[in-house]
Amino acid sequence: MVSSTFRPHFTPGKDPVPILQEAGWATGPVWKGGKSHPHRDSIPDRAAHSQSLYRLSYPAHTIVKSTITYAAETWCLKVKTVAKLNSTEIDFWRRSARICRTDKIRNTVIKQKINIARSLLDDIKTKQLQWYGHVQRVEEGRLPKEAMKWSPPGRRKQGRPKLTWMEGMRGLMGEKGLMEEDWNDSGNWRKNIM
Fold first, then answer.
1. Contact of 136 with 180, CB cutoff 8 Å
2. Segments of the chain scoring below 70 in pLDDT
3. Whole-number Å distance between alpha carbons of 165 and 159
4. What was the pLDDT predicted at 55?
5. Quick one: which of 97, 22, 105 has its CA closest to 52?
6. What confidence score (pLDDT) does residue 15 get?
7. How confident is the model over 12-38, as pLDDT tens digits?
């Protein structure tokens, strides 16, 4: 990836290969017949500039992340939703690193090269636990608390019951080792859910 300080300068009649190699666009066997062809061994080198790549893609990531996770505090995380979120996130990082799926580079390798500490799903789970703790601390009679405690009247459909938001919260608290009454101390709650 070309940094903002380096601008390749092409002179007619001169070989452009050394200039492109210096810019990181082509290395060794990648350059063939005037076109850049991806080569399995050269792809990790392209993503080796992880600090600059992450810095350059960070503004785009914040925009994409805020759009995708809008109102995620109230989502019921089902298996299909989780799979779609994971595939969307890794697709974003692949495109940012200019790595296509046919290069057959594992998602874990891409995340290591770009230094991704937390996934989109982790951020959503943290948001949900923050929202849960906030609503639990709200005084009785407020609309969000009433909506969280409400259960629909009538009978459920036949078959396996669907996962509710509260059941998902209990599962998340179990993953983090949190107890039901831990939300009383907001500072401790915030530390434990991160």
1. no
2. 1-58, 60
3. 19
4. 55
5. 97
6. 52
7. 555 555 554 555 444 444 434 444 444
Structure tokens belonging to residue 2: 């070309």
CA 91/CA 112 separation, integer angstroms: 15
Tokens, residue 187:
């500072």
φ and ψ at 31, to 5 degrees? -85, 115
8 Å CB contact between 82 and 134:
no
Q: Which of 61, 183, 37, 36 is closest to 111 using CA atoms?
A: 61
| Alpha-helical segments (H) within the chain | 17-23, 43-46, 50-68, 79-96, 107-114, 120-137, 143-149, 165-176, 186-193
Query: How many Å apart are CA 145 and CA 102, to the nearest integer?
Result: 49
